[in-house]
C-alpha cells in the first residue's frame, strides 16, 4: 500500500470503447449492506451520482462479509446485465479477481475500494481507493504503546482472515508492536465481521487473560462486540481498548471511555470518489491508479472537531 502511495503514478484511462460511449448504470457492490460503514459508502456514492445526469447508480452487497460466493454472483450479474461501470469492495482478494477480469474483458471499467485484489489482478481495474491500512495499523499500534507502555499483554480481535484490508491493518499493527515493544500478543481472533461473535470471543479472551493490558477491535462489528464485552465484564476503561471505524456505537464508547480511541476511515469518500473515478474513466479522462481516502484517530479530546466529524457516521 505504501509503495502504491509512493509511486502514485497517473495512468491513462484504458480504451473501453463500448462502455465509454454508453451512459448507464454504475453498480456499487460492497462487502455487506448490513453495516453502517458500508451504508456510509452508499451515501458517498449517492452524492457523486447526484452531481451528474448521465448515469444511474445501484448499491448492493451480500448479507455478510463472509458470504464471498454471493458477492461474486453480484459482480457476475452486473456484468451480465451490461452495466457501464462497477465500484467494488472485494471481500476476498483471490475469489473476486476472476470476476473483475471478466468485467475488464467486457470493457466495463472497475474501481476497487477498501480492500485490494490479488497481485495477479493488476491491470484489470482502473483505480484503487482505500485507506493506507498498513499505516492505519501502525498508527493504532503506536497509540496502544503510548497507553500501555512497551511491556504487557494486548489482544487482537480481527475480522476476516486474508482480506486485503485485514492483512495490512492487523498485520502492520502486530508487526509494529513486535518491532517497538516487548508486548505479548494474544490472538488474533476472527469474528467474520459478526458483532455477536466478537462479543463472545472478547468475553472469552477477558476471562482467560485477567492481566490483559490492551485490546484492538479491527473493524466496525468487531469493535462494537469488543466494546460491549468490555462493558459486560466490568473492564470498560480498565483495559486500553482501541477500535476501528466510526458508527454511533463506537462514538458512544469513545465518549464514555470504553474506547481510548477509534481509527476512522473515509468511508463516504470511498463511495464518492470511487463513483467519480469510474465516471472519469467513462469520459476518457485520466485517473490516479491509487487514491488514499485517509484515516483519523478519533479520541474523546477531538471527537467534536471538524476533522473527526467529517469521517464519523
What is the secondary structure topology, with strand pairs?
Blueprint: H1 2-7, E1 10-11, H2 17-20, E2 25-29, H3 36-50, E3 56-60, H4 68-80, E4 85-88, H5 97-105, E5 110-113, E6 127-130, H6 133-148, E7 153-158, H7 164-180, E8 184-190, H8 195-208, E9 214-217, H9 220-232, E10 240-244, H10 248-256, E11 261-265, H11 267-282, E12 287-288, E13 290-292, E14 295-299, H12 306-309
Helix pairs in contact: 3-11, 4-5, 6-7, 8-9
Would you kindly provide a written description of the structure presented here, covering whatever features stand out?
By secondary structure, the chain is an alpha/beta fold. It folds into two domains: about 1-130 and about 265-295, Rossmann fold (3-Layer(aba) Sandwich), CATH 3.40.50.2300; about 135-265, Rossmann fold (3-Layer(aba) Sandwich), CATH 3.40.50. About 45% of the residues lie in helices and about 20% in strands. It has twelve helices and 14 strands. The chain has helices at about 1-5, 15-20, 35-50, 70-80, 95-105, 135-150, 165-180, 195-210, 220-230, 250-255, 265-280, 305-310; strands at about 10, 25-30, 55-60, 85-90, 110-115, 125-130, 155-160, 185-190, 215, 240-245, 260-265, 285-290, 290, 295-300. The strands form three sheets. Strands 3-2-4-5-6-13 form a six-stranded parallel beta sheet, sandwiched between helices. The chain is elongated, with a radius of gyration of 20 Å. The two termini are about 25 Å apart. The model is unreliable at about 1-20 (pLDDT under 50).
Amino acid at each position: 500500500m505504501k509503495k502504491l502511495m509512493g509511486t502514485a503514478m497517473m495512468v491513462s484511462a484504458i480504451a473501453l470503447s463500448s462502455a465509454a460511449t454508453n451512459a448507464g448504470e454504475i453498480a456499487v457492490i460492497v462487502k455487506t449492506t448490513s453495516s453502517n460503514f458500508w451504508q456510509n459508502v452508499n451515501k458517498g456514492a449517492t452524492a457523486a451520482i447526484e452531481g451528474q445526469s448521465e448515469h444511474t447508480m445501484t448499491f448492493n452487497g451480500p448479507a455478510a462479509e463472509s458470504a464471498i460466493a454471493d458477492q461474486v454472483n453480484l459482480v457476475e450479474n452486473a456484468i451480465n446485465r451490461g452495466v457501464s461501470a462497477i465500484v467494488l469492495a472485494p471481500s476476498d482478494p483471490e475469489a473476486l479477481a476472476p470476476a473483475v477480469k471478466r468485467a475488464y474483458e467486457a470493457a466495463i471499467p472497475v474501481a476497487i475500494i477498501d480492500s485490494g485484489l490479488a497481485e495477479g489482478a493488476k491491470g484489470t481495474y482502473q483505480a484503487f481507493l482505500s485507506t493506507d491500512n498498513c499505516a492505519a495499523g501502525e498508527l493504532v499500534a503506536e497509540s496502544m504503546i503510548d497507553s500501555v507502555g512497551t511491556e504487557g499483554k494486548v489482544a487482537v480481535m480481527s475480522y476476516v482472515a486474508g482480506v486485503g484490508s485485514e492483512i495490512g491493518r492487523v498485520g502492520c499493527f502486530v508487526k509494529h508492536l513486535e518491532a517497538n515493544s516487548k508486548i505479548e500478543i494474544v490472538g488474533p481472533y476472527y469474528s467474520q465481521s459478526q458483532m455477536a461473535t466478537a462479543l463472545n470471543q472478547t468475553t472469552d479472551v477477558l476471562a482467560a487473560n485477567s492481566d490483559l493490558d490492551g485490546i484492538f477491535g479491527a473493524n466496525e462489528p468487531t469493535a462494537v462486540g469488543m466494546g460491549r464485552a468490555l462493558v459486560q465484564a466490568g473492564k470498560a476503561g480498565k483495559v486500553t481498548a482501541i477500535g476501528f471505524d466510526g458508527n454511533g456505537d463506537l462514538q458512544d464508547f469513545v465518549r464514555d471511555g470504553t474506547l481510548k480511541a477509534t481509527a476512522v476511515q473515509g468511508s463516504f469518500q470511498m463511495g464518492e470518489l470511487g463513483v467519480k473515478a469510474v465516471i472519469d474513466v467513462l469520459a476518457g479522462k485520466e485517473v490516479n491508479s491509487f487514491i488514499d481516502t485517509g484515516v483519523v484517530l478519533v479520541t474523546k479530546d477531538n471527537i467534536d472537531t471538524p476533522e473527526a466529524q467529517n469521517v464519523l457516521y
